[in-house]
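How a chain folds remains the central question behind the approach discussed here. This step matters because it turns folding into a mapping between discrete strings. The sequence in question and its structure tokens are set out directly beneath this paragraph.
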Amino acid sequence: MKIKDLTNYLESIAPANYQESYDNAGLIVGDPATELSGVLVCLDSTEAVVEEAIAKKCNLIVAHHPIVFKGLKRLNGRNYVERTVIKAIRNEIAIYAIHTNLDNVYAQGVNAKIAEKLGLEDTHILAPKAEMKKLFTFVPATHSEVIRKALFAVGAGQVLPHNELSFSTLGVGSQDGQNGAQVKLEVVFPSGNQSAVLKALDEQFSGAAYDIMQVENSTPEVGSGMIGTFKKPMTEEAFLKFLKKNMQTELVRHTQLLGNKISKVAICGGAGSFLLSRAIQQKADVFITADYKYHEFFDADGKIVIADIGHFESEQFTIDLLYEIISEKFSNFALHCTEVKTNPVNYF
């Protein structure tokens, strides 16, 4: 089994094109064709984590955060980023990051894991994205059903809560002076599945004419943050204790308590202040996230409680999430969760 077999699987769950424009998810160090011997899962790929991978004979590190966000002009070990990359290359260890693309998926995503830890129900994406496209293709009527099934098999035709949706129009097509019964087949698909969709179409009917258009409708399966409810509301004080315990954080920075019961909860792993207006709009009682600046706390404006639990703390269970995703699919290599605590923030 090669590194690319694992990374391709991860990207079937969190397609690379779902990452934000500033991000650098993907294979950062290493050859995708390398045989896989072992995987170490972590939040941050640091020098200590690379050393751990060496000790555990893992030649692939799967991290949430990319070790390289910006282009490196030199590699001479002047900072921890360069030292980590150099150490990985010297020891033939690949580093793969699955960052905002994993943040932005509903199923098996970062925020889904937080919702699980908090026991939230009736969850949905807080800020859905427009990430759908539509395929229009013209194929012989005799091939239309086989093609339709092939497209469904690679994720086309899913508009929750429905599956295998398509629309077809029977007509007469002409090619090279020959007329024949043709079907115009229309089907939507996630943007990240485009290459798989076109490959499936070509395999079933090589040379098929087609058009693709962007669909502006948002999809509930892709987007930022998540919102859900507690089965039983709790007081604000009880909620803060519950939050601190379940998210295993030493500190919760929060805005003024409003004397309300906590029932509807908005969450965003990592830095999520950009989602506050969405949380207020959807009438959340509290917004759990991280990296809030002093003046940003004023934006709560008596409409919601902001609870900042820390960046590492909000995403630490992503390590467990990645372990679960990989172990459910593969069993032919060693898989480890890091034992290195990479949180750069300490509390006194």
Observations:
- Residues 132-217 form a domain with the Alpha-Beta Plaits fold (CATH 3.30.70.120).
- The chain has a mean pLDDT of 92.
- The first strand starts at residue 26 and ends at 29.
